[in-house]
Amino acid sequence: MNAKIAELELTEPILHDELVESCKRGDSRAFGELYQKYSKAMYNTSLRIVNHTGDAEDVLQEAFTDAFRSLEDFHYKSTFGAWLKRIVINKSINQLRKRKMDLIDIEKTNIGHLPEDDTPDENEIALRIEDIKKAVGLLPNGYRTVLTLYLFEGYDQEEIAEILQVSHATVRTQYMRAKQKLLQHLKQGAS
């Protein structure tokens, strides 16, 4: 789970429960507060999967609408943030499917190793982060989805297989190939 969401929920568990219960009673102020607390993190989660700002905004709107309509189904088996994130991820994956997401195969390539550098300064780190973001954005939808769910969202391969409704072997292969392709893009300068 996103560290910011976990921290938010650990520091204010009673407030979150009260907000959720208020939402269940139709309190629009509570809806607004929950939206304010989670919208940015959920937007970023969706954007990392769909890689398109308009689609991420659509997913965010649909996810919150569905979540608020389904609050009676939320029984505190997990945190509200984890429950909402699951909805956002599922909606994001459905959005990719609408764009005819295909889990594709690539030829195995010999990527080699990236050169080891001395300790980088902050500017170098910022540039590398931007390079990584660009390289992730260049990945095919299937690779980007698996990589995002595993590395950024913290799901294990079995959970990803369940979410994507594919076999564990497919997820393992897609993840391995996504890493290879990512390294290839980074080696080429994400161009």
Automatic annotation (TrEMBL):
Residues 34-100 form the RNA polymerase sigma-70 region domain. Gene3D superfamilies: 1.10.1740.10, Winged helix-like DNA-binding domain superfamily/Winged helix DNA-binding domain. It holds the Pfam family Sigma70_r2. SUPFAM superfamilies: Sigma2 domain of RNA polymerase sigma factors, Sigma3 and sigma4 domains of RNA polymerase sigma factors. One of its GO terms (biological process) is DNA-templated transcription initiation. It comes from the Bacteria. Keywords: Sigma factor, Transcription, Transcription regulation. One of its GO terms (molecular function) is sigma factor activity. The keyword Transcription applies. Residues 130-182 form the RNA polymerase sigma factor 70 region 4 type domain. Belongs to the sigma-70 factor family. ECF subfamily. This is RNA polymerase sigma factor.
